[in-house]
Amino acid sequence: MLVERDQEIARLNRLLFEGAREGSRLAVISGAVTSGKTALLHTVADTAGGRGVRVLPAVASASEQKFPYAVLEQLYQGMPGHLQHSGPRPGLEALRDPHGPVEAELPLLQDFHRMLDELTGDAPLLIAIDDVQFADLPSLRCLAYGIRRCRSEALSVVVSRGSLTGPAATALDELLHEPKVCHVRLAPLTVAGVSTLLTQELGTEEAGRHAAAYHEMTGGNLLLLRGLLDDRFSRLTRGPLDPAPGTDAPVAGELFRQAALSCVYRGGPAHRRVAHGVALLGDATSVPLLSQLIEVEERLVRQSVGLLTEVGILHGGRFRSDAVRTVLQDDLELHELGPLHLRAARLLYEEGADPIDVARHLLSHEAPGPVEEWISQALCDAAVHAIAADRRELAMNCLQMADRYSTDEREALQLQATMVQAMWPFNPLSQMRRLQALAGPAGSGLLPAPQTIPVVIGLLGLGRMGEAATALEQVSRAADEHPGTDLDIALRAIRLALSSTYPDHPELRPFLDLEECDGPWDIGPLSPGQSPESPQLTAFRALRTVLSRGVDERAVRAAERVLETVRLSDRTMLTVHAALQTLVYADRHATATSWCDRLIEETSERGAKALLAYFCVLRAQIALRVGRLRDTVRYAERALEELPARGWGVTVGMPLGMLINAHTAMGNHDAAAELLARPVPEEMYRNRFGLHYLYARARHQLATGRQHAALTDFRACGEKMAAWGLDSPATLTWRLGAAETWLTLGGQERAARLAEEQLELAGESSSRTRGAALRVLAATRPLNERIALLQQAVGVLQASGGWYEMARALADLAEAHKQLGDLDTSRLMTRRALRLADSCGAEELSRSLQRTPARSALSEATRTGEDTAAFSELSDAESRVAALAASGYTNREIAAKLYITISTVEQHLTRVYRKINISQRRELPASLDFDVAYTA
């Protein structure tokens, strides 16, 4: 603390200038660089001068340490004029030769002794030497000779000494370890000391709240503290008169950085080189490494690191402030940086350090030089680690630099393939040219099989099936030579993926695997000795199973297990995507939505635009299957924003199909037509994603009155699905589309046959497809049979969550009741259909139901002359039950929606009937419109 420094000054004054003494007195002020040694020395010298003591000052310098008697000459120059000789001191010039005999300096030693005796004969004398550790050896010998032989009580000596020493270290230790020497050690300020200083400088006690932060940045170093404070005052003079709260917090500026440089430079060239080396490496945790880097012996490196720690630059081997490291890096000469970075990289690589740390130095190495073989491998290793850490830009920089250093063709091709794999999830468009250039090498076997697989996947997406097949043949040959390896598993997964996604290409048919999905499902506890199946195979086999056979509970559980155990990464993205698709096609909407939203958030945070687009289109597909048309448009449009159509390649049918289908159901036929007018790759029609586009186009044609074109597309869709082995209700309900088309053409029998086929495929489970099939089948039946089928359809759709289809079924049910003359029931069904259509965004359906502006219960009662007070007597619970009953819900349905018992619903309705003076449910006012949101 500052108070302690005042106590040290008083202590030195008492020792040097007060009280009885025996022989000369010697005081040593030590401490780290910029700890205040010089200031304390000057204070003592000024105090001595004020008391009539003659002072002989001298300052030792590292740059003058090699010049004999440099310090001694300064002392002579401070003597009175009558003691100074006009010529050189006796024997001084002869002793300039550093190789001369030590005995030759005896006359000079004796002369200096006589001068001390003469000077102390009439007045006290104080010799004050700053930075005595840099004093030359001859001067130290002379000083020690004079002090030991001068018995006068009038002689006092005070020196300041830093931590570093030079060639004269032994002589200095002999001098400063005399008996009765007083040692004063100046330590950095504590947090309390910093708080005291800040209070004095800032003029407020509130500054103490920042003391810990100031101490953290400076370690209590006075010079660094002054730099921070000067930076603060400089900011305030440039800023407003009334600084905002918090301006007392330390912020490193130019003055602080210059203070840090001063701390380093005062230690001398070797010390400065150590500081530069630490700045380059980032820490000083490995002294041997640092010693090799800067070519300074370990002893001196440890000494310098200790001093940098003591002075407040380092703490725990690391810089207290990044600003100090930056200024030290900038302080290095440009011609030094390149070689130092290269040497640091080599040393770290040889030590087996983190590859990213090695790459950091290599990427900073810009100086030309011979190509060293290890550099390319080090950069490749760093790229792999950077990709795993999701540091794509760093990975690309490493790979590009490795490519420049590579002299081997195969190695260069591997680097290009790794670049494609690293950046494809983020920006496929930027990698298309590089991918196309790799097609030939991949097909000719120049690329290793693991690097060929991402190229194959990319070529498939671009629709270059022949080149993909040629490259896949190379992978197949390599996998045959290593059965059971990761490569073999990856190839089997690709074959399954081809079977469910690209099954219509002659070039790819040799690689299809339609038998793999018949293998044993690993979904339960493992038996002894049994190995778990690869998540890749599990995910793609589950997807193929659902697409070819429909919903399979084993496949669904397997897909869920994959999502629970596999973390999304570059290597697992296709696996995760396949597992999630399985849940979507299996209509596990809640689970699929939860996983999809989680993955959308994760990929959005990572900036992986391509992956984000893939998950957004799956989210759109979920929304379409449950009938949330606005959500379908929102997610599909986002998918095309994140990844433009050109980036989707032959899979663009998926986002376009979702958008076209949703716009058609909403009645936005112009928007759907504009999407259909966009050019698409011809190869798109030969994969599963093209089926969704073809189905959506058929839906649009049916909605716009082009029945024959619609029928052609629905049939084409069915033929492809049958030929590809994907004709299941989980994929697409093309039969229902064709049946609806035949209904508009008057083909009741054909429509009925198609609807019955769809029902048979759907089975007895309550599924969205079964409900939709019942609705279509009802349209082919006589009016007296239609209502039962539609009621069954509504129940199935409500249980399965097909809200748009349920709205259509309710609309048909309302029309059937109307034709039978049951207008009250028709009104109730219409109201329910309207609510659902509005909730789904089916605007065209809403318009067809001819909805009128909603009226409140109060306005209805007023219009009919009823007693409005009766409605005001209903409680909130009664109002909710009455509103749902007026909308056509059964007591059981109301109980489920409001989480109450059926008995409670009946009691509420009884009270409602009594209060508004009616006797049965159908007498509830049609406009009873309380704010009860429909819950899907």
Automatic annotation (TrEMBL):
Matching Gene3D superfamilies: P-loop containing nucleotide triphosphate hydrolases, Tetratricopeptide repeat domain, Winged helix-like DNA-binding domain superfamily/Winged helix DNA-binding domain
Pfam family, one: AAA_16
Signal peptide: none
Parts forming coiled coils: none
Keywords for this protein: ATP-binding, Nucleotide-binding
Chain ranges of the HTH luxR-type domain: 867-932
PROSITE patterns: HTH_LUXR_1, HTH_LUXR_2
Superkingdom per UniProt: Bacteria
SUPFAM superfamilies assigned: C-terminal effector domain of the bipartite response regulators, TPR-like
Stated name of the protein: LuxR family transcriptional regulator
Source organism per UniProt: Streptomyces yatensis
